[in-house]
Amino acid sequence: MRVNLDIQSLRSFIKVGEAKSFTRAAEALSLTQPAISQQIKRLEDLLGVEVFTRENRQVLLTLEGEKLFAYAKDIVVCNDKVG
Q: In whole angstroms, what is the distance from residue 20 CA to residue 1 CA?
């Protein structure tokens, strides 16, 4: 199955994964927390999997999220090289 992944959603996904927080990711990207949440929700809907789980006020990558994380970084790096 082919899907078209949005680069900004991937940037948000990466930042949430690194920061382990939607709020801190939003601050780092100069976006609102609801905007980050919406991007992640759209990404999950597109992929058909959950990429984060919440534990003890911390956001952690699911197994599927871990698989996507490295690919997302590569995709964003490649995108930035082209632009």
A: 29
